[in-house]
């Protein structure tokens, strides 16, 4: 008889292509993933995945098994959501995914208040620059800065985040005045990778400084903050984080970088589950209370830490 767990491991490997990536998603060792694949192939007496230099690739049989396994998975997840949605107890695990800086600087500090009111609700905070699947139960709640590609989600805008252009005073002294008309030739840029949430702000920066050299790309906003704070170059950063970094100077520009909406996402089947509902409410109240810090008034552009440059 087929073991559903073997199919689950097979799906993870087929989707992610490597033992290490599948193991990370499943929170197990690479050897466990390999062992489960071997078990499934032995049960079915057919090879399902071929190992190539680019990762594991499904065979013809593997393609057919993946299609059937995904149908079983969808049915199992729908059943799980239906049953968990009827759980009236204010206790249990709630998985929350968001970007790294938001997890460390905003949500994690706030959860002490949540736990004081709901001691039996455990939060698993998952910092991830990429979108985890709520439909596949990789997380229960997502706090994101861009519109999701997933379906069957309930989305609410709960706030906004302002961005600014930053560098250190030493960097600006070493590299001279920034001539935006000349595309900031001779300057260095720190930007986000293509599939991360701050891509809109990175696109603004690379257009503004079109002749500058990109010297670092990262999926981590915190890494970009620290790289800029250590003189690595110009970076478009969330003001709530970068304004608190004493080594950084915010640079005035004629056209401010685009802000980002803070979006709260939950699967439609889970939104009324009590333990998930209390976490949704807590996050909403937290973000709204921090509104003036996350999205300062325009007048604060004139504060003492801003440094006017030629634009």
TrEMBL record:
Transmembrane segments: none
Matching PROSITE patterns: HTH_LYSR (PS50931)
Lineage of origin: Bacteria, Pseudomonadati, Pseudomonadota, Alphaproteobacteria, Hyphomicrobiales
Domain HTH lysR-type: start-end pairs: 2-59
UniProt KW keywords: DNA-binding, Transcription, Transcription regulation
GO terms for biological process, alphabetical: DNA-templated transcription
Keyword set includes Transcription regulation: yes
GO molecular function list: DNA-binding transcription factor activity; sequence-specific DNA binding
Stated name of the protein: DNA-binding transcriptional LysR family regulator
Stated family: Belongs to the LysR transcriptional regulatory family.
Lineage top rank: taxon: Bacteria
């Amino acid at each position: 008889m087929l073991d559903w767990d073997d199919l689950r491991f097979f799906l993870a490997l087929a989707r992610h292509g490597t033992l290490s990536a599948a193991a990370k998603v499943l929170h197990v060792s690479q050897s466990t993933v390999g062992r489960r694949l071997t078990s499934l192939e032995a049960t079915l007496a057919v090879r399902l995945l071929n190992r190539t230099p680019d990762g594991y690739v499904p065979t013809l049989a593997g393609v057919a098994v993946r299609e059937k396994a995904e149908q079983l998975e969808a049915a199992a997840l729908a059943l799980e959501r239906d049953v968990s949605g009827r759980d009236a107890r204010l206790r249990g695990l709630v998985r929350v995914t968001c970007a790294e800086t938001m997890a460390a600087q905003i949500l994690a500090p706030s959860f002490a208040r949540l736990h004081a009111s709901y001691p039996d609700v455990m939060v698993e905070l998952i910092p991830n620059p990429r979108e985890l699947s709520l439909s596949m139960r990789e997380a229960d709640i997502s706090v994101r800065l861009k519109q999701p590609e997933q379906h069957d989600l309930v989305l609410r805008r709960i706030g906004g985040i302002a961005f600014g252009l930053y560098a250190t005073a030493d960097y600006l002294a070493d590299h001279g005045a920034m001539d935006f008309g000349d595309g900031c030739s001779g300057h260095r840029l720190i930007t986000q990778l293509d599939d991360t949430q701050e891509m809109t702000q990175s696109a603004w920066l690379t257009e503004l400084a079109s002749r500058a050299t990109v010297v670092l790309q990262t999926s981590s906003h915190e890494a970009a903050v620290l790289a800029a704070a250590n003189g690595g170059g110009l970076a478009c950063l969330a003001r709530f984080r970068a304004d608190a970094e004493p080594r950084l100077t915010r640079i005035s520009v004629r056209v401010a970088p685009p802000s980002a909406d803070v979006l709260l996402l939950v699967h439609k089947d889970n939104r009324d589950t009590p333990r998930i509902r209390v976490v949704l409410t807590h996050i909403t109240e937290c973000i709204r209370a921090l509104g003036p810090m996350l999205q300062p008034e325009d007048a604060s552009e004139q504060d003492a830490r801003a440094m006017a440059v030629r634009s």
